[in-house]
Amino acid sequence: PVEFKVLAAGKPAVGATVVLHPVGAAPDGGHVPVGRVGDDGTVRISTFGRDDGAPPGDYAVTVRWFEETRRGEEGTVLGPDRLKGKHGNPAAKAARRVSVKKEANRLPPLEL
Question: Is the pTM of this model over 0.85?
Answer without folding.
Answer: yes
